[in-house]
Amino acid sequence: MLALFFMCMLQATCSFFRQPANFAPDLDLSLSELAALDMCQKRAIFKPMTTEQRQDLKLRCGGSWKLVLRYLMAGEACCRREKSQAIAGPGHSIAVTGKGVVYSFGSNSSGQLGHGTTEEESRPQPIRTLQGIRIIQAAAGAGRTMLVSDSGQVYAFGKDSFGEAEYGGQGSKTVTAPQLVESLKNIFVVQAAIGNFFTAVLSREGRVYTFSWGSDGKLGHHTDPSDVEPRPLLGALEDIPVVQIAAGYCYLLCLACQPSGMSVYSVGCGLGGKLGHGSRTDEKYPRLIEQFGLLNLQPMVVAAGAWHAAVVGRDGRVCTWGWGRYGCLGHGNEECELAPKVVEALSNVKAVHVATGDYTTFVVSDDGDVYSFGCGESASLGHNAAGNDGQGNRHAKLLSPELVTSLKQINERVVQISLTNSIYWNAHTFALTESGKLYAFGAGDKGQLGIELVANQTERGNPERVEIDLG
């Protein structure tokens, strides 16, 4: 990321003097600062900002346009902002094209597909009421979907609750079509994340807001599941810009961007050691995970599974921690790790992306290879050789990373993996390629794979192309 940043700076400096600038000259700025500001001007979330908002962001990032550019680029890199993406939710799926068109399919008992009905869909269907609205990011929880537009607005549908438990009761009503979240209208949102018992959003300025959490104040405030007002995440991150958030089972990870480098903060339930602080203690306010400094690792991407977490460093190393059941940490055993630990089995792999689910982890390398480990129930690891009926081995587990050869065989460069992050739903997995092709495998009992299953089939053991172009 650092090399890419300086390459962009060099390109910006050169191009800056080949064409008219997008702003009035500031004689107090150095050439590199002018070039950085010019590059910032070309970022989608920076363009609509007022002069005052831009100056506030500059101060928040450390007082330099180069730091603002690094902040914007870091967010684009780890969240696929402005790019196609696929989300393997609990029982339902969301796919966003590069042009911001949204498709949904799978379970729809709460209207979480956004089609105005509660009927299941086994094939990807566009959400027609969003015509004319460009979506740049999506989040899927149990019975609920949230979408973020390029204008910073948030649409939600499905269970009418920001803090409902994943299993059991629902909100007072269900919403079957995208509905603007009124309480977020004055916050320019760039990312949403749905955890169990809470929801979190990230603003353009790098501020984190949360909804609900129950009555024990685990996020520093006392609310109930019916709460619809966003509350700023207080504590250490109030004055530090965050570029990515990741929500797991009752905890939240925040990837922060500071002048000194990137860092990770965690908050919430510490059960299993998933907060990464060397203990199982809960944290009511965000706390810096200090282990990355000891490992000399600059975090660039974070992922929060149900009970474990993972990070990809700038140098391509992968760290995991938390509950190691089924080998989901990749360390060759099922033990808990209370602090981030480098996955030594991937020492010869330069990782660029990581995804986590319920005791499952996927890693994507810089050359597009995919590795997985952990629980392979519902054939969601991609290693399950399907029989004549297409079914895979439902109970396999891998204690160490293994190359997913079935994805290697599609002869496409994989850029994103998404897998179900739920302890109550059978898991499925998506692999998105550089050309915009989408492949699916794992559980498909609710139509969440987006492919046709033959009679008595409930899953696919090998990746199969979903007939939708996300390029």
Explained architecture:
Helix 1 (2-16) crosses helix 2. The longest helix has 15 residues, at 2-16. This protein has six helices and 28 strands. The protein has helices at residues 2-16, 31-41, 51-61, 65-79, 291-294, 405-408, and strands at residues 85-88, 92-96, 102-106, 121-126, 135-141, 144-149, 154-159, 174-180, 189-195, 198-203, 208-211, 231-232, 242-247, 251-258, 261-268, 283-288, 299-304, 308-313, 318-322, 337-342, 351-356, 360-365, 370-375, 397-403, 414-419, 428-433, 437-443, 459-469. It is 13% helix and 36% strand. The strands form seven sheets. It has a four-stranded antiparallel β-sheet with strand order 1-2-3-4, with no helix packed on it. The chain is mainly β and 471 residues long.
Supply the key terms:
36% strand, four-stranded antiparallel beta sheet, globular, single chain, 13% helix, mainly beta, 471 residues, 28 strands
What's this, in brief?
The protein has 471 residues and is mostly beta strands. The protein has six helices and 28 strands. It is globular, with a radius of gyration of 21 Å.
